[in-house]
Write a structure and sequence with these properties.
The complex is a heterodimer of chains A (about 220) and B (about 250).
Chain A lengths: L7 H33 L3 H32 L3 H35 L8 H22 L3 H31 L4 H33 L6 H4 L1
Chain B lengths: L5 E12 L2 E12 L3 E5 L6 H8 L9 E9 L2 E2 L7 H7 E4 L11 H11 L7 H10 L3 H4 L12 H14 L4 E5 L7 H14 L4 E5 L3 H7 L2 E6 L2 E7 H6 L4 H7 L5
Parallel strand pairs in B: 3-8, 3-9, 6-7, 7-8
Antiparallel strand pairs in B: 1-2, 1-4, 4-5, 9-10
Helix pairs in contact in B: 3-6, 4-6, 6-7
Classes of the chains: A mainly alpha (about 220), B alpha/beta (about 250).
């Protein structure tokens, strides 16, 4: 994909779109990391920042949607350009949802910071690390148009789901052993679920990248077969 | 479900102007009763290819052809084939509308019938063809008016009616809307869509979006070579060849 468009303005518009998407991805990556840090370190101030910064993510969704619409209307994109722009429209939706998930976790963090600490949440931290890594890899795959890297994101999702189940079961055990932990354990459970959903959105991104590069739609492969 | 039958099969077709090779061993099928678009940059040979299909290429001085073209299984370059008869079966519409300037609207359409010695009352055929060409409503009250009194878009549809009058099976169109405004273009494109249920249509166009809009199959020519041919949707969403990809996305050409 080394060749550039004869119309340099068009080329620049596509490059700008790519950069905007990456910027939005970066914001979401930072948000999820900060929201989990806020839980682990019981930092309500950090949590509030995550909630506030989500406005920027939302605004970027609107801007990027507009940029895509403009390109469709004015450029009649074809082939790889068409796949890139229609992929961008979908990526933006996933990223915005991921931003919302970070906000949800941040809100749990505010609650948890006001209550006595529950047992150490190392596994939550590991779950967060896997989810962040999934997003980062999916974004890398997008930038470098690397379908192999995207496939790695899809393969790693099972591991993420398994870790989520482990965290879920541990919290369930905690609640059964001591009902006074229920409120806090439930907050942690929701957070774990949000992280698992975050990972799912990352796999959506990866599937989109595969489509964008290869032109084959691999979504819902298991349920479509 | 059976595969669509090809109306025309081109095999290893090479075309020359003197020593210059302008088409290089082209092989492709033109499916019946559908629209095939030929796209490519200026000078790629698309008009030459079109003109081979009704043996007009050979009329140019020093022009010759190698390879074969079969229509319904018959070699159109066979000794027994009358090229004039072929050009009734394979009609052509050109870039600039070219109605016979001294004739009325009616006489333009019936011209082919008269030239081919088809006697009788031509009115039924003329009306039918004007209807088929989506022109009837606009000219029904002035059939005796001069053809050149029509607008460009109307003249082009008149030329299509004229081609239809001799009951062709194939319609070749060489950039038929290049000289027309967007609304006239849309009318012709709509007409093409209606005509394809009866006729096999091959359209040369330098407007890629037009090829995307009207055709079922698209062939991409570059410097006399057939780079890729396939379903139009595939050519414009996920072409196999990188040269096709570069052309349709505007990276060269």
């Amino acid at each position: 994909m080394a060749k550039s468009h004869i119309d340099k303005t068009y080329d620049a518009e596509l490059t700008a779109l790519r950069e905007q998407l990456l910027e939005m991805g970066g914001l979401v990556e930072a948000a999820i990391a900060a929201s989990v840090k806020a839980i682990i370190e019981r930092d309500a101030v950090l949590a509030e920042q995550v909630v506030r910064k989500d406005q920027t993510v939302n605004r970027m969704e609107v801007d990027i949607d507009g940029a895509c619409r403009r390109l469709l209307a004015l450029r009649q994109p074809a082939a790889s350009d068409l796949r890139f722009i229609t992929t961008a429209l979908k990526i933006v939706t996933d990223l915005e949802r991921m931003g919302d998930l970070a906000v949800n976790i941040a809100r749990r963090a505010v609650d948890l910071a006001q209550a006595p600490p529950l047992r150490p949440v190392h596994d939550l931290g590991r779950l967060a690390a896997l989810s962040e890594a999934a997003l980062r890899k999916a974004l890398d795959a997008f930038v470098t148009a690397d379908p192999v890297k995207a496939e790695e994101v899809l393969e790693a999702d099972d591991h993420l789901d398994a870790l989520y189940l482990k965290v879920f079961n541990e919290l369930l055990t905690t609640m059964m052993e001591d009902p006074r932990t229920i409120r806090r354990a439930t907050s942690l459970m929701f957070s774990a679920k949000h992280l698992e959903r975050f990972g799912d959105h990352a796999t959506n991104l990866a599937e989109m990248v595969i489509f964008m590069v290869r032109g084959t739609d691999v979504r819902h492969a298991k349920s479509r077969a | 479900m059976t595969a669509p039958v090809n109306k025309i099969n081109v095999e290893n077709l090479s075309a020359y102007f003197g020593k210059t090779e302008v088409l290089r061993s082209i092989s492709a099928g033109i499916p019946a009763k559908s629209v095939t678009a030929i796209i490519g940059p200026s000078g790629c040979g698309k008009s030459t290819l079109l003109r081979c299909l009704n043996r007009m290429h050979e009329l140019a001085p020093g022009a010759r052809v190698e390879g074969s073209i079969h229509m319904d299984g018959h070699d159109i370059q066979g000794r027994e084939v009358d090229p004039v008869h072929l050009r009734r079966l394979v009609g052509m519409v050109f870039q600039r509308p070219n109605p016979f300037p001294t004739m009325s609207i009616f006489d333009n359409v019936s011209a082919g019938l008269r030239l081919n010695g088809i006697r009788g009352d031509h009115r039924t055929m003329v009306v039918q063809c004007l209807r088929q060409a989506a022109l009837w409503d606009e000219v029904k009250d002035r059939l005796r008016a001069p053809a050149i009194s029509l607008s460009g878009g109307q003249q082009q549809r008149l030329c299509i009616a004229r081609a239809l009058a001799v009951e062709p099976e194939v319609l070749l169109m060489d950039e038929p809307t290049s000289a027309l405004d967007p609304i006239a273009t849309a009318k012709v494109e709509d007409l093409i869509h209606e005509l394809k249920s009866k006729y096999t249509i091959v359209i040369v166009t330098h407007n890629m979006q037009q090829a995307a809009r009207v055709s079922d199959q698209t062939a991409f020519l570059y410097m006399g070579e057939l780079v890729e041919v396939g379903a139009t949707e595939q050519i414009f969403t996920n072409p196999r060849e990188s040269r096709t990809e570069d052309y349709v996305t505007g990276k060269f050409g």
